[in-house]
Amino acid sequence: MQSANLQKDKLELIEKIIHTNDKKTLEHIKSILAEENSEYELTAEQKLILEEATTKYYSGEETSFTWDEVKSNARKSFNEKKS
Predict the structure, then answer these.
(1) Rounded to 10 degrees, what is the CA torsion of 34, 36, 40, 43?
(2) pLDDT digit string (tens) for 29-81?
């Protein structure tokens, strides 16, 4: 369930959009909303890769890393490439 503040914000935006006569503003809002909806769309192939990786992770076939380990590994790789 959405919070009352979120609902209020949505209604205020709807009202502003209704009363906006600037085509450029409306096009900008439309493009933002279009990007938001498509930003996280995965292809069927990407979904399959994700499912396979998740299965391997939960079965113990592949290990995972903490965020600190990921950062440390990235730094090491970056420093090795610089050398």
Answers:
(1) 0
(2) 988 887 765 556 788 999 898 899 889 888 988 888 888 988 998 998 888 88
R_g (Cα) of the chain, nearest Å: 22
What the block records as the tokens of 1 is 């369930």
Question: Which residue type is seen at 55?
Answer: T
Q: What is the DSSP string of 21-76?
A: --HHHHHHHHHHHHHHHHTT---HHHHHHHHHHHHHHHHTSS----HHHHHHHHHH
**CA torsion, points 68, 71, 74, 75, in degrees to nearest 10?**
-100
